[in-house]
Write a structure and sequence with these properties.
single chain; mainly alpha
Length: 86
Amino acid sequence: MKLKQTLLTLSAAAMIAAPVAAQAGTTAAASVGKISNLSGVGERRSTDVKAKQKADGTLVVVGLLAAGAAGFGIYKAVDDDKSNGS
C-alpha cells in the first residue's frame, strides 16, 4: 500500500513540476522585459507560391487511391461475413 501511495505522490509532483521544467531556459522566459522594438509586429506579408509547391496530378491520384483503400478497409472491418439467410 505504501508503494501505491508513493507512486501516486511522485506522479502528482511530476505533473506539477512539468510546466515549470518546460519553461525553464526558453527564449520566451528569457525575453520578458527586454522587448524594446515592436515595429512590424502586426504586419502580415504574403509570399509567392512556387511551382514545386503546387499539387500535381500524381498527388491527387495517390490521395484518391488512399481514400479508396481506407474505405475498403472500413467496409471489410464492418462486414460480418454472414449470409443473409438465403
